[in-house]
């Protein structure tokens, strides 16, 4: 490095340290830095080169949960400040949802869906995407779509009636879009947060009687691990839920948020 380039290098060095909150660490040896600080030093090495594109390959995988949350914020703020394109590879769907402007979900090297985070969440292209995005992941129930004079219904299981499983009515708009699939096998997908405890006053949806096998209080919410005639699932309900494990409970499925997949191709039946 020529002498005349030293001031410019020092300026870039100081700017990167300021951006990453490392000014108080500049005199330390690498072994005196925490894991998160070392991650930020690695980012600083890239920043001083002023690249047009950053490529991150699971940069937070070795950090604990608290540090990962902090570094997600740091990288998001860095992206906003620099305005550079960032390609971020991760197996953590929380990182993808919270940091990405656009997500490409891949399986075995093939892109399954590429869209904005909430588009992928609300309108998954197939069961793999639906099961990957969301925490806890989407619940799946296998059964059949049946149409009669009263509307279109989803029957869980393979029986011709709901004796060995539950039966729920498909909402009118979705039913019209599924008209060509009446009588066919289908997979009903519904997210845990779209299942409510009826005893708490929930009424917007279809009631399903299920055996609650375990209750997991999470603080602001509670997870109910339940089972119907053929499938196990999880409901993400209010922290005030008074349902007890080992008993049956009426749970309300918000069918306006339901998804239907082809069990053979695992693709969404209607887009």
Structure explained in plain terms:
With 271 residues, the protein is an alpha+beta fold. It has two domains: 3-101, Rossmann fold; 140-261, Nucleic acid-binding proteins (OB fold (Dihydrolipoamide Acetyltransferase, E2P), Beta Barrel). It is built from seven helices and 14 strands. The chain has helices at 6-19, 35-47, 65-82, 93-99, 117-122, 127-132, 172-177; strands spanning 53-57, 85-89, 103-107, 110-115, 139-148, 151-156, 167-169, 185-190, 195-197, 206-217, 221-227, 232-238, 247-253, 259-261. The strands form four sheets. Strands 7-6-5-8-14 form a five-stranded antiparallel beta sheet. Strand 10 and strand 11 form a beta hairpin. Helix 2 (35-47) runs parallel beside helix 3. The longest helix has 18 residues, at 65-82. The relative contact order is 0.10. The model has no long low-confidence stretch (mean pLDDT 86).
Would you summarize the structure shown here?
This protein has 271 residues and is of the alpha+beta class. The chain contains seven helices and 14 strands.
């Amino acid at each position: 490095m020529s002498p005349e380039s030293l001031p410019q290098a020092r300026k870039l060095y100081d700017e990167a340290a300021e951006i990453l909150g490392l000014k108080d660490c500049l005199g330390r040896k690498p072994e005196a830095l925490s894991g998160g600080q070392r991650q930020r030093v690695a980012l600083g090495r890239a920043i001083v080169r002023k690249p047009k594109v950053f490529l991150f390959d699971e940069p937070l995988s070795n950090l604990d949960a608290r540090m990962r949350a902090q570094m997600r914020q740091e990288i998001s703020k860095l992206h906003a400040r620099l305005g550079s394109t960032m390609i971020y590879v991760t197996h953590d769907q929380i990182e993808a949802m919270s940091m990405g402007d656009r997500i490409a979900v891949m399986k075995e090297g093939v892109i399954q869906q590429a869209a904005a985070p909430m588009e992928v969440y609300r309108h998954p292209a197939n069961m793999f995407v639906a099961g990957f995005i969301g925490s806890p992941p989407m619940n799946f129930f296998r059964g059949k779509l049946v149409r009669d004079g009263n509307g279109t219904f989803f029957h869980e299981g393979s029986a011709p009636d709901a004796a060995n499983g539950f039966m729920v009515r498909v909402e009118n708009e979705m039913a019209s879009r599924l008209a060509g699939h009446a009588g066919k096998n289908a997979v009903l997908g519904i997210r845990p947060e779209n299942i409510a405890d009826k005893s708490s006053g929930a009424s917007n949806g279809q009631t399903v009687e299920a055996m609650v096998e375990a209750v997991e209080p999470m603080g602001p919410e509670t997870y109910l691990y339940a089972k119907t005639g053929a499938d196990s699932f999880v409901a993400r309900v209010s922290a005030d839920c008074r349902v007890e494990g080992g008993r049956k409970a009426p749970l309300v499925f918000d069918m306006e948020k339901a998804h239907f997949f082809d069990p053979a191709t695992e693709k969404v039946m209607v887009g």
